[in-house]
Amino acid sequence: MDCLFCKIIERKIPAKIVYEDEHVLAFEDVNPQAPVHILVIPKKHISTSLEITSDDNELLGLMYQAANKIARDRNVAERGFRLVMNCNREAGQTVFHIHLHLLGGRILHWPPG
Ligand code: AMP
Ligand code: ZN
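Above: the input record for the complex with zinc ion. Below: its predicted structure, written as tokens.
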């Protein structure tokens, strides 16, 4: 399978990893859209939000808990931050291994573009 984020998990492609546990990996986005822009991914390959099943219920909770920990560590938890998962073309998904964008460190406008 030719998946960029699986290659980051396998350390075949370098990334600035900021968090790792048994099930979750987080690293700096290579093209940051905010002072804090981190991608939180499951180590299990799931291509889009639509492929999440009840088998993944715990995994999704672990992704959110990792994101919360990183937000606190980066001092954006109290100020505010955003967790976004894009799904498919019109939402702008470009990497087909699910990821939460953790964005913070500036005012985030709503609705997003
Ligand atoms: P999305 O458009 O929601 O699929 O998000 C994909 C994100 O992955 C974008 O914000 C890219 O900047 C980011 N990205 C692409 N390649 C890399 C990479 N090698 N390392 C870190 N982030 C990446
Ligand atoms: Zn993958």
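Notes for the reader.
The longest helix spans residues 57-73.
The beta strands are 17-20, 24-28, 36-42, 81-84, 100-104.
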